[in-house]
Amino acid sequence: MKEIIIISVLGIVVLALDILKMRKLILPLTVAGLTALVACSILDWGHNEVPFAQYGGMLLFDNYALAFTSVFGILGIFWLLMNSDQYAPTSSKRTDIFALMIFSMCGAVVLASYTNLVMLFLGVEILSIPVYVLAASDRKNVLSNESGFKYFFLGALASAILLFGIALVYGACGSFDMNIIHEKVSGGVNNGLMLFGSALMLVGFCFKISVAPFHMWAPDVYQGAPTPITAYMATIVKGAAFAGMFKLFGSALMPLPASLLTAIAVMVFLTLVLSNFIALVQTSSKRLLAYSSVSHAGFMLGFVMMAQNAPAKYLLYYVLTYGIASLTAFSVLNHVASFQNGDDSQNAFKGLVKRNPVMAGAMTVSLFSMAGIPPLSGFLAKYYVITELLSGGYIYIVIAMVITSAVGAYYYLRLIMTMFTPIENAGRIVVGNLQRSLYLILTILIVALFFAASLLELIEL
Amino acid sequence: MAGSIFLMGAKSARQLALWAGIAQLIVTIGAIWTFQSGDTQGLLTFNQQWIGPLGISFAFTLDGISLVMALLSSLLLPVIVYASYNRTFKNPHVFYGLMLLMVASMNGAFTTSDGLMFYVFYEFALIPIYFMILIWSNAENKAKTTLKFFIYTLFGSLFMLVSLLYVAQTSTSFAITDLYDAGRSLSALEQGWVFAGFFIAFAVKIPIFPFHSWQPSTYDAAPTAATMLLAGIMLKMASYGLIRLVVPMLPDGVAEYGTWALALSAFSVIYASALAITQKRYKTLIAWSSIAHLGVLSAGILSGNIQGIQGGVFEMLSHGILSVGLFFVYDIIESRMKHDDMSKMGGIRESNPLFAFMFFVIVMGSVALPMTSGFIGEFLLILGFYQYSPILAGIAALTVVLGAVYMLRAFQSMMLGPANAATINFAPLTKQEKTVLTIIVVLVIAIGVYPDPILSLSNPTVENLLQGIH
Q1: Single pTM value for the model
Q2: Per-residue model confidence (pLDDT) at position B4
Q3: Closest-CA residue in chain A for B48?
Q4: For residues B193 and A319, what is the distance between their CA atoms, to the nearest angstrom?
Q5: What residues in B contact A457, CB-CB < 8 Å?
Q6: Residues 6+ apart with CB under 8 A from A164
Q7: Alpha-carbon span B206 to B201, nearest angstrom
Q8: Residues A169, A198: contact at Cβ < 8 Å?
Q9: Which residue on chain B is closest to A365 by alpha carbon?
Q10: Where residue A203 falls among pLDDT bands split at 50, 70, 90?
Q11: Which regions in chain B score pLDDT beneath 50?
Q12: Residue B306, exposed/middle/buried by CB under 10 A (0-12, 13-18, 19+)?
């Protein structure tokens, strides 16, 4: 319960610091706050706290919630430190961006810990609304405005669909409480109302996690938004939506009707094929990473398909490893692009190995990890999805995953190759010491998480 | 034991790389000695559980087959490093560092006794070689070539992953011995499908027609040291995989649904030989000839009898040594002539009889003349294949005839005949070149005349593997 309080208070404190003209304190304080969040989650581990009465028992910080909260916290700390050079310490922009990010993380924590569909909806909204603003935060840039606008309209539509689904499920079960819904579902409430409600909730979530055919907004929004925000959307927002979705489909709506499972399988298939093949023809590296993010959503959706028997820790591992890899990739992209007047085409990466070896190394490792090459953590993440799906008998989806992974490797490698292409008279790309060491840490983490995967077996999730 | 010694791939300059290679050779010989003296448990196995519930562990076992493979890589590593002394590379420490890293992961694949670890090492070896070609190649189309190479092999090995996981579903762990039991308990049809997945992965890397098209262009574009690594050691991972995983794990699948794979291998021999005959350049010729020889290798192994597999193990060693020799000859010629167009050469023997003699021995090994290492391997392979299907074996045996055609023709047009303006001043071999060629020539003849130590090293293990099947 401390977790949600910490993160909400932190957001307010950031705003207060701005009023008190202590903007320099914002970065250390937010990092300290998120560290406290992670520390609390770890300390509370295994206590299996009872639902807190003041919230009407609508939030529950069980191990599932704590695990995801700490992963979001870790990713958040990296995000904050990495982007601390993007917004001058004394500008009001820093307050706005950081405060909105913290508020949005509140939503992420709620999504990991809700036990009630009302809280689920609130979580989705708290998570999304600050991001609409963040996406449009580069006010003078038309693309950024377009991005915020598009995201807002489609996001609002998705929320409406989700809400409609929640209403129908309420109609079928007579309660918002997940436990009661689960009792009704397993007790045989399986009428049209329930099915339609669940289907609408699925659609609402699929908008948020951007899987085909509801992914159309993602490339445009990802490309238009300022790159740090894109990184935030691809890591924490996506991870939080998955945490919420997995919880919903893995507990309350269990067992899922066969028709819904088929629908999810079809979406996984579509997502993998569409995103990977469209990514092949992208010239903008930012759009490329956006499609890659869609493709990874397809992989993670595989876990949701198996939500009834797959342990949540594998999804957690996927969220963490993909989060780290894509945070690295987007940050490198941001630094590279900002050195060449915002040029984010793939050609901007030419000769990066000479211009900044640390960044080139970090980018290479993260792209290899996203492509799923051992011995990097991305390989194990994909491996877990594939074994889960195989044990569920979805061999066709596994084959689609395998083939599209090879397609994916093609565009990741092409980008790596560009970095190793020599280029004449291009200056070095300089980043701060903090960023450089962060790149090193992130790179090491991508490798280390592969070898540390056995730790995953120690936790019960 | 194996893992820790082989993971020496830190940054090092070429001397260091050479010493590392020699050290590895000494360790391997020590391991062989230990193995011969009967201690198969203590020193030669290493097992550390990694992801317990999923049954994945860092496990290494050095049995007879693994030892031959380790011998192959540790014999060739110092030779390859020393052979590259006449070339200077930009950033040599990175180049040799990548080389050692690659050899480390190949050794990992050769010695591991865990199916998933094999996959991990098999894949990881791609990354260093990818950068070695990408950064140190002089070819114009290197970006395209390396991309093609990487995607091809990745695409293939992902099928292996699916097959591996499919088998592992019914297995208690990823330990290869458990996988054998699980694989054998599948129905023949299932085994056939699983085999298809494995075979596609290995056929890309061996390579077998029609999965071979990455190979000639990659060999051509890669710097010679990298080509030697590829042809000499790396591609042996695939044929090793056939022996270690496919044959003992899926006997019914190979027997009932595997004919297509053997037929493809046999066809691959003819196809590649025919193309080798038409080549005008020496390096592409040896690239194609390599495909032809490896077609026989794959067919012999898949026959699944003792001759085929023993021949396979032996041929891997022999072909590794020979292809390093052939590519080193290319390196010598290219460094002097700046091209490798065979029609513009001739008469090198007049100015350089020693070089011509050594080249001749290597060519003889390559066309499998008795008393050379090539003969033993190919003879056993074809013998094994014959027991499977006399007709297909007859086709594959053409490799010896066709091989003689293109190899001897190449030798003739390069070395014999009147010297022309370009070859009359062919500089004599340097001391370093002499040393490397001598080592290779001695190995080719020594193993060819007295193959028994190698064969008896792998024999008990091969018999052991086959016992499980029949």
Answers
A1: 0.85
A2: 38
A3: A454
A4: 33
A5: 51-54
A6: A197, A200
A7: 9
A8: yes
A9: B127
A10: very high
A11: 1-12, 42
A12: middle
Hunting for tokens 């999730």 — which residue is that? A461
Residues of chain B neighbouring A387 (CB-CB closer than 8 A) = 54, 165, 168-169
Residues of A in contact with B159 (CB under 8 A): 402
Please choose, from the candidates B156, B104, B141, the residue with its C-alpha nearest in 3D space to the C-alpha of residue B216: B141
Domain that holds residue A429: 2-458
User: Residues A209, A215, A216, CA angle at the centre, nearest 5°?
Assistant: 145
Q: Please report residues of A whose CB lies closer than 8 A to that of B146.
A: 417
Instruction: Count how many domains chain A has.
Output: 1
Domain boundaries, chain B: 258-470
Q: Which of residues 44-63 of B touch A (CB under 8 A)?
A: 49-54
- CA B287 vs. chain centroid, Å, equals 13
Find which of A417, A457, A458 to mutate to test the B interface (most B CBs within 10 Å of its CB).
A417
CB of A368 within 8 A of CB of A414? Answer: no
Residue B216, min C-alpha distance to chain A (Å): 20
Which tokens go with A261? 């499972």
